[in-house]
């Protein structure tokens, strides 16, 4: 490596709505696909880092007539909470509210215990479809990065920022989806 070259690739390009739609469209009709679609779309809508959806509880997400209100721990203490409104999208294919409701409905259909309001917002799911415990920030990043590999390769750089730091910074165009 030359002296002036950085070992880091630099800042990822800004998120792209066409890439987001393609990823949402490509999620398979499975429990994992529903989770990943809800994870990508809601995270994009509130411009999260991977640690934020990993730490969400079901009680942190309130469904309202016009969308969702998500309470996110923004600092190092539980006292630093920001409430973010996530509106419904005009495009049902990439609506974070629809994706969230579908994920929750499918999860509760697997086991009614997952309706407990003190439970997790996003669960780990193994390759056999077994629902597990909480997702770590690394698991969130991996789930987003592996959201259908075929789609990601067709998108090229369009899907890149969804892998880089979750989807932070995506709030610029999140409401126009």
Structure notes:
By secondary structure, this protein is of the alpha+beta class. The chain has one domain (17-176): Intergrase catalytic core (hpI Integrase, Chain A, Orthogonal Bundle). Helix content is 36%, strand content 14%. It contains 7 helices and 5 strands. The protein has helices at 17-26, 31-45, 51-54, 96-110, 137-145, 149-155, 160-163, and strands at 61-64, 67-73, 81-87, 123-125, 131-134. Strands 1-2-3 form a 3-stranded antiparallel β-sheet, with no helix packed on it. It has a two-stranded antiparallel ribbon with strand order 4-5. Helix 2 (31-45) runs antiparallel to helix 4 (96-110). The radius of gyration is 16 Å and the shape is globular. Mean pLDDT is 78; it is low at 153-177.
Oligomer: single chain
Shape: globular
Strand content: 5-15%
CATH architecture: Orthogonal Bundle
CATH class: Mainly Alpha
Please give the domain count: 1
Total number of beta strands: 5
Beginning-to-end CA distance, first to last residue: 41 Å
Look at the structure and name the CATH superfamily. Intergrase catalytic core
Radius of gyration, rounded?
16 Å
Secondary-structure-derived class: alpha+beta
Number of helices: 7
Q: Which segments are poorly predicted (pLDDT under 50) over 5 or more consecutive residues?
A: 153-177
User: What is the average per-residue confidence, as pLDDT, rounded to a whole number?
Assistant: 78
- Following the backbone from N to C, one meets helices and strands in this order, namely HHHEEEHEEHHH
Helix amount:
25-40%
The name CATH uses for the topology is: hpI Integrase, Chain A
């Amino acid at each position: 490596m030359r002296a002036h070259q950085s070992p880091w690739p630099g800042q990822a390009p800004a998120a792209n709505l066409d890439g987001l739609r393609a990823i949402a469209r490509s999620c398979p009709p499975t429990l994992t696909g529903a989770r990943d679609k809800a994870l990508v779309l809601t995270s994009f809508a509130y411009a999260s880092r991977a640690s934020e959806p990993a730490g969400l509880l079901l009680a942190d997400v309130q469904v309202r007539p016009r969308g969702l209100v998500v309470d996110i721990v923004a600092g190092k203490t539980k006292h630093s909470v920001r409430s973010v409104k996530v509106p419904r999208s005009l495009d049902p294919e990439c609506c974070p509210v629809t994706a969230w409701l579908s994920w929750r409905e499918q999860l509760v259909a697997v086991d009614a215990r997952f309706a407990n309001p003190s439970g997790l917002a996003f669960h780990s799911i193994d390759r056999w479809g077994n629902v597990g415990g909480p997702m770590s920030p690394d698991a969130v990043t991996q789930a987003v990065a592996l959201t259908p590999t075929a789609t990601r390769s067709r998108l090229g750089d369009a899907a890149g920022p969804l892998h880089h730091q979750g989807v932070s910074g995506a709030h610029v165009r999140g409401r126009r989806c």
